Amino acid sequence: NDxxxxxxxxxxxxxLTMLTKHAATNNDDNRKLKGGKHQGxxxxxxxxxxxxxxxxxxxxxxxxxxxxxxxxxxRAFIAQRSPTANRWxxxxxxxKRARLLTDADVKIAFWITAGINLIxxxxxxxxxxxxxxxxxxxxxxxxxxxxxxxxxxxVKYFARSWALHKSIQILMNECLAKIPDVNVTxxxxxxxxxxxxxxxxxxxxxxxxxxSDDQNHVDEEMExxxxxxxVVADGTLIEDKRLKSDIKIITTFEEQxxxxxxxxxxxxxxxxxxHPLTIKGTNGDIYSxxxxxxxxxxxxxxxxxxxxxxxxxGFAFDSMGGISKSAKDLIDHLYARGExxxxxxxxxxxxxxxxxxxxxxxxxxxxxxxxxYDFKFLGIPNMRxxxxxxxxxxxxxxxx
Length: 400
Prior knowledge:
Layout lengths: L11 H11 L4 H6 L6 H20 L6 H5 L2 H8 L16 H4 L3 H11 L21 H7 L5 E3 L5 E3 L2 H17 L5 E6 L8 E2 L14 H4 L31 E5 L6 E10 L23 H13 L2 E2 L4 E7 L6 H10 L3 E2 L2 E2 L5 H28 L24
Parallel strand pairs: 6-8
Antiparallel strand pairs: 1-2, 3-5, 4-7, 5-6, 9-10
């Protein structure tokens, strides 16, 4: 599109030449064009072009979709192009509690963001015994990268998504409670306590709670629970692990209070089953990922069993920080200024902007800190001392 340069039918290289001339890429030009109408757009276009060329340097586009999807460094780079992925850098100047990272952790976070493999040689994982592994991607998929010791002294392994899921849930409870006309009312609410079942697409029946296989099932995103189905008037079994969301809020800035159920999910970028979803392919944008939107779509299919009128939200991310459209739309809705005739109850515009920024920055920080945990729990070398290891007891409590 023409963005004010009267580009007409100029070639791509001629446009880029004009772009470098008019985008104020050096200090002198920046002073001259400060506040210019098109400067921001030109800079964004130039950065986009550079990022695309960098992606092509990792794996050439003509290598084929399969080769691109199977490259862990390209998958991570494309996912991190999301506008929320690296917002954690906005908190890097804070103390280690606010940024959730120690000084040593910050180094690892930068290395991961830059696509640096902290152990170059593929070798056997001492935890899950997989051999050989690429260490850059293995942290997210290792089945034994998280563990705790229970009261009976037994070691319990759990998926990374369980801890990450809980961290996001705690963060949302805290941040959404600061919005003046949003009330956080319930944790892990049942869908049927808020919405009616869809008669044309009813919820699936719950499994028999006496079944030992069902009792031993561990949902990666939820704490293990035992469910006992009970029959109600319409014959629907209402208690089932698939029929709960994570947070219930009620908004009071519309004509009447609106209940919203938020269902959190984080899809692992490096999981083998997700590889085809990390790059859109030849018929779409090969420089962006659709994994987060796929996670939201899977939640939407589950929510279709209920008459929620669009108020059951799949709050979905990928593990590198990519955000789904449904999650972004919900954030924009909750932190909106409000319509002219019905303004929201913000104390000030500054407060509204600051709270939204805080939430997005901290959300990115939580996702980043868990990427660092992936490496720490696997014993990645600490670069402060040659050969030293990061010491973290297996029962360490994950912060949020």
